[in-house]
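Hi R.,

Here are the chain sequences for the assembly we discussed:
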Amino acid sequence: MKARQFFISTLKEAPADADIVSQQLMIRAGMIKKLAAGVYTYMPMGLRVIRKIENIVREEMVRSGAVELLMPIVQPAELWVESGRWEKYGPELLRFKDRHQRDFVIQPTSEEVITDIARQEITSWRQLPVNLFQIQTKFRDERRPRFGVMRGREFIMKDGYSFDRDADAAGKSYETMFDAYCRIFNRTGLVFRPVAADTGSIGGNRSNEFQVIADTGEDLIAYCPDSQYAANIELAEAVQVGGERAAATEEMQKVPTPGRDKCELVTELLGLPLTKSVKSVVLASDERDEEGNVLPAKIVLILLRGDHSLNEVKAGKLPELKNGFRFATEAEILKAFGSKPGYLGPVGLDPKEVKIYADRSVINMSDFVVGANEEGFHLRGVNFGRDLPEPEVADLRNVVEGDPSPDGKGTLKLQRGIEVGHVFYLGTKYSEAMHATYLDEEGKSRVLEMGCYGIGISRVAGAAIEQNHDDRGMIWPDAIAPFTVAICPMGYKRSEAVQKVCDELHDKLAAEGIDVILDDRDLRPGPMFADWELIGVPHRIVVGDRGLKNGEIEYANRRTLDQKEMVKVEDAVAFIKSKLKA
Amino acid sequence: MKARQFFISTLKEAPADADIVSQQLMIRAGMIKKLAAGVYTYMPMGLRVIRKIENIVREEMVRSGAVELLMPIVQPAELWVESGRWEKYGPELLRFKDRHQRDFVIQPTSEEVITDIARQEITSWRQLPVNLFQIQTKFRDERRPRFGVMRGREFIMKDGYSFDRDADAAGKSYETMFDAYCRIFNRTGLVFRPVAADTGSIGGNRSNEFQVIADTGEDLIAYCPDSQYAANIELAEAVQVGGERAAATEEMQKVPTPGRDKCELVTELLGLPLTKSVKSVVLASDERDEEGNVLPAKIVLILLRGDHSLNEVKAGKLPELKNGFRFATEAEILKAFGSKPGYLGPVGLDPKEVKIYADRSVINMSDFVVGANEEGFHLRGVNFGRDLPEPEVADLRNVVEGDPSPDGKGTLKLQRGIEVGHVFYLGTKYSEAMHATYLDEEGKSRVLEMGCYGIGISRVAGAAIEQNHDDRGMIWPDAIAPFTVAICPMGYKRSEAVQKVCDELHDKLAAEGIDVILDDRDLRPGPMFADWELIGVPHRIVVGDRGLKNGEIEYANRRTLDQKEMVKVEDAVAFIKSKLKA
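And here is the predicted structure of the full complex:
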């Protein structure tokens, strides 16, 4: 490809509303163009990256035995009513009426449609397993779309769905997809980590997110450098820390702590370490009677060590909170505790009013500090079994760096990631709701077991940049770069020799199937280099009269622009090919 | 590909609501699956066809210098308001509000977005020409979607847009696209015809439709077998027929014609040929004064020879009707003519009430019959210049077979076609409305000249079937067949020899890059052949023990299934390759 035949449009400055580096760089490099909030055009340079990611995904899906189809973007409401998602999905589900006033949605995913296809097409165990996927535009009406293509409203996604005869077979399909995803992300050239993730209301332990490691990631990952353990912070099990419970040495004592409404402030005043304080988090679960009348909310007190933080996903699994919860209002807190927030504690509560759960790491504390349920006062020297009953215990906190790994093989580290893929065992959630069954060997009707498997194609592009960039711009891995090699002539129109070498090299590299672009725009070296450094083409060849005097061209890798190598013109193709293999 | 790894699902019967053969066959062959009216899933077998068509289109677009991008499916209303299409586009434009109550549309095409991109990106004459295209899902909320993928609501379209400095340069872009389209449709292997088409309100003569020839087509095409002339019936020029006007030989005479309210009935009664009668068609154009008050409609009388039919597109170009027209109501007719329809004519009308236009082939008639403007009566022996003034003349009728070709090189024939592509010179319609300008060499701001170029990807698939099918099913051209070669084993599981030859042949053909499917489903020959004949794979190889005794396999082409050829196993790959070249 020659640059003048292509469409290159770079900007010096990113627009003010671009809030992360990938978005800024993609806009500056002319890869995407904003049309509306969270809605982008993929400009030619950006579309090349998208297509390369798509092709890797497609090839590995097909290699794993999955078959591609294409479901409609516009889907009738009926199926969504049947699955229950018409009710449950919030305003992120874009709903509209057609000219005949029938309800439709723009697909955010296609579980309903694929289950509808499966229940029509799959009738016998002989047809199983079936694994179908599509690469298609999706829409989620995010309240606050941001981060460019990372959290857009319109985005490109690969979504795949497996159908199996039972949970064992579904497990095999799941493993097959897990392996395919590892191959896919390995091929992209990105540093990633598959992490265990929460399965929500589905249950079971088959949910893995594929996280591209990047400091700017929204997600926090806990992993053990000494083992295979890795989990999303939401799921990562926090084991008990702090050792055995020591015997009580202090008497419980009410101490004035005016204005000290946080653990840090209280322990500072009392001269105690933060780990001696217990934090009281009050949650509420709204209740209704059978006729739908609103009842007073259930109040749950969560006790956490002062330096720990609540894990809301874990809290949501407590029996009292499993139908949804929120933080209690000040009025509810005043009623149940007799005090305003900041001075709450578990001592002296009415168990009929407040259900208490302690995090694992609280239960072995002694002589600790809690709020006195009276504004401006705390209790110190508090001990379980003596000053208050032994509470129920659960894993309720987020892990922190240095926590023991749940597999017992070392300690946890934390890092940030960007979720680019998700494999998920669905079980019979959709197939049961939509009556997708097959006949087994004995002619007995059974419900299909399903899995779903997503990859955010456009998100992979954003994550790649978050992971790979410098002050000059993006740095693409070879496999998903818009172009693999950029040829930069010094005086393309001025020097016949330069033009001839560039043209020949371009044609030879292209003939080898290498994605090469020759910059024939006749720019000065500064702006030309700046463009290709911004766009992040991984391999650069500079051809100028000075080098050609020695029959040489200059090579540099985008990651190491200072380490230039001079290469004989006749060796250039072989040289580039060796660099691409490396 | 082996059949068991793929997803094959054929039906004996098409659903009752499938109204044309391509829709019936695509559903029966498991290529598409209806989700809602005019909304289909492309099942794996169908998607393969779509992808092959897409790839041909993409390759030829790129070869012609166009650059691919991808615009959003969801587009903000603002741009559509700016272009004027928010008002003008009817209910086929799907409009909806997002969660913030902002207006959006689902794109039926992308003129607005591409013009918005152009006005931001194209600033200088140095950047021109620019030609951008996308292959993307579109939505048109058809009132009555039908014909499967041919007139669906959701469909896949290639839409491209060119930007040029002036009309001359735009003409060159137009020619380039015209040539690219010829290459594209030649490569699909379909019989097609580029035909001149109407340019509507844009004017000029640069509009060509690409019509796939099929008896079931919705469009009528006039062409001259002796020249290059071909035009959509809407545009095809009707030259004057019937020779010079003969002198009047009869007196005008009022004759009773009770109940004879059609030309055929009147001439039958009078014993005259139909070509001696003149048909009166009354059109009306609604008028408003400057303050928007409704005025009485303008009434226009069109005179056509009794055997001719009105061409509404041509009528719409008359000065009185160019802002839109309709057929006059009975009340309007009564008021202007004093008679109810069926007995209308041009004699004795008030020119202030009714404007008269005669078709070219009426003006040279003499002694003709018209309605008497009195129920139950006609006038015979009517002559222009004597019984009524000479009328204004225009080309107002549809051509018929046998009409002289407008290029003077023979006579016209008619055939039916399916429009699969359209190249269109837009001029400055969008660029002017949306202020898309560039600076020329003298630094002067000029409006960009545009062209737009569409190909209905999913429609090509339907048209291919309409053109190529028989009682057994579809017959795909090699280039867009879901698979090129089907290997049908007779006893894949029963005979080791059959399995071995099939597997080896499959692998060798696949290694040659040939799209082969091996049917390892172990079906009986009848159902297996029926499936592949229905699906329409163009080349079939049958491998059975009987043939293998002589070291031979059987080849048949889908078009000529009775002409089987026996081929030595060792020659099979070369033989198939020679068939694919042919």
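The two ends of chain B are 24 Å apart (CA to CA). Residues 483-581 of chain B form a domain with the Rossmann fold fold (CATH 3.40.50.800).

Let me know if anything looks off.

Best,
T.
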